[in-house]
Write a structure and sequence with these properties.
The protein contains two helices and twelve strands; from the N terminus they run βββββαβαββββββ. It is mainly β and about 150 residues long. The protein has one domain: Pnp Oxidase, Chain A (Roll). The protein has a seven-stranded antiparallel beta sheet with strand order 3-2-6-9-10-5-4. The protein has a three-stranded antiparallel beta sheet with strand order 1-11-12, with no helix packed on it. A hairpin with a 2-residue loop joins strand 4 and strand 5 (about 35-40).
Protein backbone atom coordinates (compact mmCIF):
# COMPACT_ATOMS: atom_id res chain seq x y z
CA UNK A 1 0.00 0.00 0.00
CA UNK A 2 2.99 2.30 -0.48
CA UNK A 3 2.96 4.47 -3.61
CA UNK A 4 6.32 4.75 -5.37
CA UNK A 5 7.87 6.38 -8.37
CA UNK A 6 8.96 4.18 -11.27
CA UNK A 7 12.50 3.99 -12.61
CA UNK A 8 14.48 2.17 -15.26
CA UNK A 9 17.99 1.38 -14.08
CA UNK A 10 20.48 1.16 -16.95
CA UNK A 11 24.07 0.09 -17.43
CA UNK A 12 26.36 -1.24 -20.14
CA UNK A 13 27.84 -4.73 -20.08
CA UNK A 14 31.61 -5.20 -20.32
CA UNK A 15 31.00 -5.71 -24.08
CA UNK A 16 29.18 -2.35 -24.32
CA UNK A 17 25.63 -3.71 -24.67
CA UNK A 18 22.85 -1.78 -22.93
CA UNK A 19 21.08 -3.43 -19.99
CA UNK A 20 18.00 -2.04 -18.26
CA UNK A 21 15.19 -3.01 -15.94
CA UNK A 22 12.16 -1.45 -14.31
CA UNK A 23 12.55 -0.84 -10.57
CA UNK A 24 10.36 0.95 -8.07
CA UNK A 25 12.65 0.17 -5.12
CA UNK A 26 14.44 3.52 -5.30
CA UNK A 27 15.21 5.84 -2.37
CA UNK A 28 17.44 8.65 -1.26
CA UNK A 29 20.03 7.62 1.35
CA UNK A 30 22.19 10.68 1.98
CA UNK A 31 22.66 14.26 0.83
CA UNK A 32 26.34 14.50 1.85
CA UNK A 33 27.67 12.58 0.05
CA UNK A 34 24.74 12.22 -2.37
CA UNK A 35 23.71 8.55 -2.18
CA UNK A 36 20.69 6.65 -3.50
CA UNK A 37 19.67 3.00 -3.29
CA UNK A 38 17.67 0.48 -5.30
CA UNK A 39 17.30 -3.28 -5.10
CA UNK A 40 17.39 -6.17 -7.56
CA UNK A 41 16.21 -9.76 -7.21
CA UNK A 42 18.89 -12.42 -6.75
CA UNK A 43 17.15 -14.26 -9.62
CA UNK A 44 17.49 -11.38 -12.12
CA UNK A 45 19.34 -12.25 -15.33
CA UNK A 46 21.18 -8.92 -15.20
CA UNK A 47 22.43 -9.30 -11.62
CA UNK A 48 26.00 -10.24 -12.61
CA UNK A 49 26.27 -7.15 -14.81
CA UNK A 50 25.08 -4.82 -12.06
CA UNK A 51 27.30 -6.49 -9.44
CA UNK A 52 30.48 -6.01 -11.49
CA UNK A 53 29.82 -2.77 -13.39
CA UNK A 54 31.22 0.51 -12.11
CA UNK A 55 28.47 2.93 -13.17
CA UNK A 56 24.72 2.90 -13.78
CA UNK A 57 21.94 5.40 -14.34
CA UNK A 58 18.59 5.59 -12.61
CA UNK A 59 16.03 7.04 -15.02
CA UNK A 60 12.98 8.34 -13.12
CA UNK A 61 10.09 7.91 -15.52
CA UNK A 62 7.58 10.56 -16.48
CA UNK A 63 3.84 9.84 -16.68
CA UNK A 64 3.98 9.48 -20.48
CA UNK A 65 6.54 6.62 -20.20
CA UNK A 66 4.21 3.90 -18.83
CA UNK A 67 4.81 1.71 -21.90
CA UNK A 68 8.57 1.80 -21.26
CA UNK A 69 8.05 0.77 -17.63
CA UNK A 70 5.99 -2.21 -18.77
CA UNK A 71 8.47 -3.19 -21.51
CA UNK A 72 11.53 -3.08 -19.24
CA UNK A 73 9.68 -5.23 -16.67
CA UNK A 74 9.15 -8.12 -19.13
CA UNK A 75 11.47 -11.13 -19.20
CA UNK A 76 12.94 -11.97 -22.60
CA UNK A 77 11.59 -8.85 -24.31
CA UNK A 78 13.63 -6.73 -26.72
CA UNK A 79 13.75 -3.85 -24.27
CA UNK A 80 15.88 -1.45 -26.31
CA UNK A 81 14.24 -1.59 -29.75
CA UNK A 82 13.20 1.93 -30.68
CA UNK A 83 14.16 3.41 -27.29
CA UNK A 84 15.83 6.78 -27.63
CA UNK A 85 18.77 7.18 -25.27
CA UNK A 86 22.09 8.97 -24.99
CA UNK A 87 25.23 7.81 -23.20
CA UNK A 88 25.77 9.38 -19.80
CA UNK A 89 29.12 10.66 -18.56
CA UNK A 90 30.31 7.10 -17.79
CA UNK A 91 28.41 5.41 -20.63
CA UNK A 92 25.18 4.26 -18.95
CA UNK A 93 22.17 4.86 -21.22
CA UNK A 94 20.06 7.90 -20.29
CA UNK A 95 16.49 7.41 -21.48
CA UNK A 96 15.10 10.36 -23.44
CA UNK A 97 12.14 12.08 -21.84
CA UNK A 98 12.79 10.84 -18.29
CA UNK A 99 11.58 13.13 -15.52
CA UNK A 100 15.06 12.88 -13.93
CA UNK A 101 18.26 10.88 -14.23
CA UNK A 102 20.82 10.02 -11.60
CA UNK A 103 24.20 8.91 -12.91
CA UNK A 104 25.83 6.83 -10.20
CA UNK A 105 29.07 5.17 -9.23
CA UNK A 106 28.28 1.61 -8.07
CA UNK A 107 29.54 2.29 -4.53
CA UNK A 108 28.36 -0.75 -2.55
CA UNK A 109 26.14 -3.82 -2.60
CA UNK A 110 24.41 -5.70 0.20
CA UNK A 111 22.91 -9.18 -0.09
CA UNK A 112 19.69 -9.14 1.94
CA UNK A 113 17.11 -11.91 1.65
CA UNK A 114 16.23 -12.61 -1.97
CA UNK A 115 17.49 -9.21 -3.20
CA UNK A 116 20.71 -7.24 -3.54
CA UNK A 117 20.61 -3.63 -2.36
CA UNK A 118 22.74 -1.33 -4.50
CA UNK A 119 23.97 1.98 -3.11
CA UNK A 120 25.03 4.47 -5.74
CA UNK A 121 27.00 7.65 -5.31
CA UNK A 122 25.35 10.28 -7.50
CA UNK A 123 27.90 11.88 -9.79
CA UNK A 124 25.45 13.80 -11.97
CA UNK A 125 21.74 14.53 -11.84
CA UNK A 126 19.50 16.10 -14.49
CA UNK A 127 15.75 16.66 -14.64
CA UNK A 128 13.01 17.75 -17.01
CA UNK A 129 11.21 20.73 -15.45
CA UNK A 130 7.46 20.28 -15.19
CA UNK A 131 7.46 16.56 -16.12
CA UNK A 132 4.68 14.77 -14.20
CA UNK A 133 5.97 11.57 -12.54
CA UNK A 134 4.88 8.02 -13.25
CA UNK A 135 3.66 6.45 -10.00
CA UNK A 136 2.89 2.86 -9.01
CA UNK A 137 0.45 1.78 -6.30
CA UNK A 138 -1.53 -1.39 -5.68
CA UNK A 139 -0.45 -2.99 -8.95
CA UNK A 140 -1.52 -0.02 -11.11
CA UNK A 141 0.12 3.04 -12.65
CA UNK A 142 -0.90 6.60 -11.77
CA UNK A 143 0.34 10.13 -12.06
CA UNK A 144 0.16 13.04 -9.66
CA UNK A 145 -2.99 14.94 -8.75
CA UNK A 146 -2.68 18.05 -6.61
CA UNK A 147 -4.57 17.92 -3.32
Amino acid sequence: MFATGVTIVTMRTAEGLPVGLTANSFNSVSLDPPLVLWSLSQAAASLATFRTGTHYAINVLAADQKALAERFALRGADRWSGVESTPGVCGAPLIAGAAATFECFNRSRYDEGDHVIFVGEVERCTWRPGAPPLLFHGGRFYTEHPL
